[in-house]
Amino acid sequence: MPRWNTVAIVGVGLIGGSIGLALRARGLAGRVIGVGRNAESLRKALEAKAVSETTLHGDEAFRAADLIVYATPVDHIARAISQSANDFAPAALVTDAGSTKAEMVRQLEKLLPPDVRFIGSHPLAGGEKAGVEHASSDLFEGRVSIVTPTERTTEVVTREACEFWELLGSRAVTMDPEEHDEAVAAISHLPHLVASAIAASTPEERLGLAAGGWRDTTRIAAGDAELWTQILLANRANVLKSLERFEKTVSEFKAAIENRDSAALKRLLAEAKRIRDAVGS
Amino acid sequence: MPRWNTVAIVGVGLIGGSIGLALRARGLAGRVIGVGRNAESLRKALEAKAVSETTLHGDEAFRAADLIVYATPVDHIARAISQSANDFAPAALVTDAGSTKAEMVRQLEKLLPPDVRFIGSHPLAGGEKAGVEHASSDLFEGRVSIVTPTERTTEVVTREACEFWELLGSRAVTMDPEEHDEAVAAISHLPHLVASAIAASTPEERLGLAAGGWRDTTRIAAGDAELWTQILLANRANVLKSLERFEKTVSEFKAAIENRDSAALKRLLAEAKRIRDAVGS
Q1: Which of A153, A156, A185, A266 has the fewest CB atoms within 10 Å distance of its CB?
Q2: How many Å apart are CA B210 and CA A175, to the nearest integer?
């Protein structure tokens, strides 16, 4: 018997599609219903076998589902969930895959009836290419998924959400929504901003010389501009805080180079290497 | 018959060792003599079959060689070449693999007897791991090697150096030493500095969440700190110029985020994506 009878996935792009593929590949769900507003996207999700059926209107799917996952752009999630809250089955677990958590989760705490079993999630997985055509059943394998309970979340809901992400192959960790946003600003949003700034500031006549270093360092700059605009603005305060810390470090490098201070420069490079080496390839 | 009877490689680390392995794998050289000051490094190069023989004293090797390649740290090359110039066979091509060119090449133009057939080179290849134990015969395949003739270089010398790097599997491009240094500051040295600054400014308690984006963006920060101290200082003026351009772009991102200007932010991200997409994976 599958772990969930009916799963509704709202938004079947790269992440939603990969959740569907993973659920189906691992035999975890009876029905996987793709919910969306764009008939063409839904058709593609069905074609990719990421879902077993699709609908433009969530209400029936929500009443049937014992697991509902929102994988739509992060600035739509809170409103979408609160608007559909009356349709959710009482026992259903409701979660999402949005890249920022504090604003959305705190907003939903105010909007949702207390019996809705919602908890925020964020799988640290993705890729430069958007769309269900790039979805993959192993997208979450070996990755970390962050689950963000609050003081109002019950333990059983937290446990169930962690179980969900672990059954998809990732390692679940929990932290509160505010800590999540601070952590991902440093580990994901700042690198994205900086990679984009390197790419954007490279003189185009030099691109023919781009080797492994430039390619690695700028790879994530190929991400979707619309999506990343939302993410960086949704996590504005934390991104600016991380950026400040980064700029301080850059100015230390700059001073060492300006002053031809090879000891200071080597110390900075060695510190960077120590931290990078600690993570591994 | 191999293309070169005797090749002397001065410095048999990652780059020198890979040159030796590539020459031997492709049957391009009769003898490949590793020249160095450290007996242990030479022993390792011999063991790795990167060279067919080794010596601590270059003089005899230089007299025998029809191709001499310096792959030592960039700040040693000019002095080492000028000190051995009298030993080079008149027909020998002498080149190097140093990461910066202008200072070294211009210095050698003053120091070398006019009959020495020297030309600067820089293969855009490498890796985070130093040492002959990480050398590989295909290190240059599909890469770009820059050859830096000056107004005093003959065409036949330029052609021979280009032929050398192409026979190792890379694509040779020529530019003058000053243009080289400006280009690599933008495409290689700045990304290294920035990758290091991201790594060094990441709070260590967040490293457990590092996913593909952080890993890609900081990968080159694992490079050798001593080597990169030399490179960044040797190309100081160009690195600072690239850094200024980068900082200007970062401050545009910062302003867009501070002002919640999603149109400006999206424009910046889209421009970065356009440039990154032009290069490919």
Answers
A1: A156
A2: 16
Are B146 and A209 in contact (CB < 8 Å)? yes
Environment class of residue A241 by beta-carbon count within 10 Å: exposed (0-12), middle (13-18) or buried (19+)?
middle
Residues of A in contact with B248 (CB under 8 A): 201
Query: What's the pTM value of the predicted model, to 2 decimals?
Result: 0.87
B222 and A276 within 8 Å at the Cβ level: the answer is: yes
* Inter-chain touch B125–A232, beta carbons under 8 Å: no
Inform me whether the C-beta atom of residue B144 falls under 8 Å from chain A C-beta atoms: yes
**Would you give the DSSP letter of residue A136?**
-
pLDDT, one tens digit for every residue, chain B (281 residues): 899 999 999 999 999 999 999 999 999 999 999 999 999 999 999 999 999 999 999 999 999 999 999 999 888 899 999 999 999 999 999 999 999 999 999 999 999 999 999 999 999 987 667 899 999 999 999 999 999 999 999 999 999 999 999 999 999 999 999 999 999 999 999 999 999 999 999 999 999 999 889 999 999 999 999 989 999 999 999 999 999 999 999 999 999 999 999 999 999 999 999 999 999 87
